[in-house]
Amino acid sequence: MAAKKDSKNKSYDASAISVLEGLEPVRKRPGMYIGTTGPEGLHHMIWEIFDNSRDEAMGGFANRVEVALLPDNHIRVVDNGRGIPVDIHKQTKVSALETIMCTLHAGGKFGGDESGYKVSGGLHGVGISVVNALSTHTRVDVHKGGDHYMQEYNIGIAKAKVKKLGKTKHNGTTVIFQADPTIFPEIKFEWKKIVNHLRQQAYLVKGMNLTVIDARDSEEKLDPKSLEDTVYISDRHLPVPHETFYFEGGLRSLVAFNNSYQKPIHKNIFYVEKHDVSPEVLTVEIALQYVDDISPRITAFANNIYNPEHGTHITGFKTALTRTLNAYAKKGNFFSVKEKDASFTGDDVLEGITAVVSVKMPEIQFEGQTKAKLGSVEARGATESVFSEAFATFLEEHPDDAKAMINKVILAVKARKAAKAAKDSVLRKGALEGMSLPGKLADCQSKRAEDSELFIVEGDSAGGSAKMGRDRKTQAILPLRGKILNVERARIDKMLASEQIKNLVIALGTAIGDVFDVSKLRYHKIIIATDADVDGAHIRTLLLTLFFRYFRSLIDEGYVYIAMPPLYKIQKGKETRYAYTEEEKFEVLKDMGEEVSEDMDAEVVDEDGGAEDEAAEEVEETATKKTSKVRIQRYKGLGEMNAEELGETTMDINNRILKQVTIDDALAADKVFDILMGTDVPSRKSFIQNNAKTATLDI
Fold first, then answer.
1. Number of folded domains in the chain?
2. Contact assessment for residue 213 and residue 234, using Cβ atoms and an 8 Å cutoff
3. Domain termination residue (choose one: 372, 392, 420)
4. Containing domain of residue 358, as a range?
């Protein structure tokens, strides 16, 4: 299928490239341009290069894009678009390619119709130049007008002028870059993260064929040098991990994908796509479907850039959704006579909704280069008007679907009222009203949240050890009795009927639901400390589900942690060491002068102090050998540690290991919680079977 061309844009040459300022600040303050030099910023480098190819596809100039992970942390992105201009730029006196690659705020996205980019996510024009500045090596191959051009760069500086390598039948651009290890502390690209992001983009550009390849460990040498004469790696049919995406259904397909582990309450997915909405908004595209759940899942895009913090387009969507459903319910007499003045709130209509909202604008305003939130005011009115009209028509034309939606919202109203009564009861009895904290809570002396920690521990036994081993000034202990309620599909009234959850809510001090206030949090470290066994993992998952669904901002702001107690206590003579992994155990034994081997004569004891059967047999078999005086104790539960051991290894800020809970990809995390904690048993079974080989088992 040939890529669509636009006759108005044949003059895409150096005159379309605008220059605003230089490149020098990027290496000094990379976080200003890619958000962070951690994993998010590292992957943002890929998104910036891919976005240029995607913009070509959005404009109808390309229909095929390939992203490949190569050895030595090289990333390669190829498209069959128009190719970056290579003629001399009048202002910079060098090629347009070098201008784009080596100058900040230089690109084809400032010049309106002359550039051909009616819609672009790369507003700032800093993407590809920033990637170039933050890479030890970059190479760009341009196939344009029958000729093949190439230029290479080191940390943003061109090594030589653009070279003409010969003739070509291909049109498009190939970019290879290698991130600079002096900028990024760890260069480790995550295959799943990349696939999930690019799959999402494929849904947003109809007709784009997108292939993602992981050739990092390919048996065939696939370094950048070997690929100089290769356009698409996927044409070589290599036996390497790869994914190919091609969707014609647009956002309708994305909603269906997001609901693949949910139970829809109505058959038809609402969908609207309207072009040329206004001079400021070229396209509004929206799809939605309600499911049998209580959590809303709204995904936002502006010029195909994912907006995790939403923005003005989502404000318009929510306003129209509430107004339209209220109007339909009143017109259809869904409210009883007693409730004739009743109406749905914004929260009521959002329960169980899966929606995707996308706008495309020629001039767009984001809050920051990472584009997390749309700030363009025009997007609100355009989204609101387009959605109001189309959704009202959909409700009239699909009465069964409309009835199911309204009944779902009415159920949410009833639940809201019941939940409010239960919540008010808790708040009246809780710490926010100056009443006593839960009796199980051993609070700390500090009243400063910044200095205070809350350990949520499994069982009274561990709770007792933790209370004795803690620092009373700053560490509070809340023991749990068994497993808490699975809140994945539980409403607040049912949750707060659980004594365990109610105690936790009161201890946190933030309240819950619509009166949740993170500024009232009593502890800035909430540490989940459970046993290193299956039950402990289950309790930890239940707690993480609670925090993800009802205290999400605590995770987002970095307040939630998981304690990492040691697996082994290793003693030799008067020396005592702790090991947190199997590998670390062998390292400790080596440090103690032991020869580490499968038949080593160490005495291994279980948590009760008795020799394990296997180890005892081994010692007996090797009784004639000289045994080393090493005692290895395997911990299987926090309660098996005495207060001194627990305090020293798991609670002492100088020795302990904590893992901070983060949500790198909220959509992927949401889907995993749906699978693991929801009601779809076949999907959960399939997930476990497919991922079992990656699990860490405690055998």
1. 4
2. yes
3. 420
4. 251-420
pLDDT-wise least confident of 14-18, 141-145, 553-557: 14-18
CATH number, position 37: 3.30.565.10
Give Cα separations from 453 to 200, 321, 556, 561, 655 (angstroms): 38, 41, 17, 10, 16
Closest CA to 280 of 118, 421, 95: 118
* Orientation of helix 378-397 relative to helix 399-429, angle to 10°: 120
Whether residues 73 and 194 share a domain: the answer is yes
Alpha carbon distances (Å) from 535 to 209, 459, 473, 478, 529: 45, 11, 31, 18, 12
| Longest Cα–Cα distance in the chain | 91
Q: How far apart (Å, rounded) are the C-alpha atoms in residues 87 and 15?
A: 9
Q: Which residue has the tokens 């959002």?
A: 350
232 lies in some domain:
yes
Task: Give yes or no: residues 270 and 336 share one domain.
Answer: yes
- Phi/psi region, residue 237 (left: phi>0; alpha: psi -120 to 50; beta: rest), is left
Write the CB contacts of 299 (distance below 8 Å, at least 6 apart in sequence). 254, 258, 306, 355, 356, 357, 667
* Bridge partners of residue 658, in order along the sequence: 563
- 163-167 vs 106-107, strand pairing mode: unpaired
Give domain status of residue 147, yes or no: yes
Could you tell me if residue 24 is inside a domain? yes
- Asked if 609 and 693 sit in the same domain, the reply is no
Q: pLDDT, tens digit, for every residue of 337-386?
A: 556 667 899 999 999 999 999 999 988 888 765 678 899 999 999 999 99
Strand pairing class (525-529; 560-563): parallel
C-alpha 234 chain-centroid distance: 27
Residue where the block lists tokens 């006593």: 436
Q: Six-digit token pair at 490? A: 């539980």
Read off the pLDDT of each residue in 33-58 and give the average, rounded to a whole number.
Answer: 90
Catalytic site positions: 458, 531, 533, 535
The set of residues, in sequence order, having a beta carbon less than 8 Å from that of 573 and lying 6+ positions away, is 629
Q: Are residues 229 and 375 in the same domain?
A: no
Calculate mean pLDDT across residues 158-176: 95
Instruction: Give me the sheet containing 658-660, strands edge to edge.
Output: 475-480, 453-458, 525-529, 560-563, 658-660
Report how far residue 489's alpha carbon sits from residue 678's, in angstroms, rounded to the nearest whole number: 7
pTM: predicted TM-score of the whole model, two decimal places: 0.65
Q: Is residue 469 part of a domain?
A: no
Q: Are residues 283 and 400 in the same domain?
A: yes
Instruction: Say whether both 223 and 352 belong to one domain.
Output: no
- The residues, ordered by sequence, that sit 6+ positions from 688 with a Cβ below 8 Å of its Cβ are none
Q: For residue range 59-93, what is the model confidence (pLDDT) as tens digits?
A: 889 999 999 999 999 999 999 999 999 998 888 88
* Separation of alpha carbons 299 and 667, rounded Å: 8
Render 227-285 in DSSP notation, one character per residue: GTT-S-GGGG--SS-EEEE--SSTHHHHHHHHTTTS-BSSSSPEEEEEE--SSS--EEE
Of 205, 358, 360, whose CA–CA distance to 276 is shortest? 360
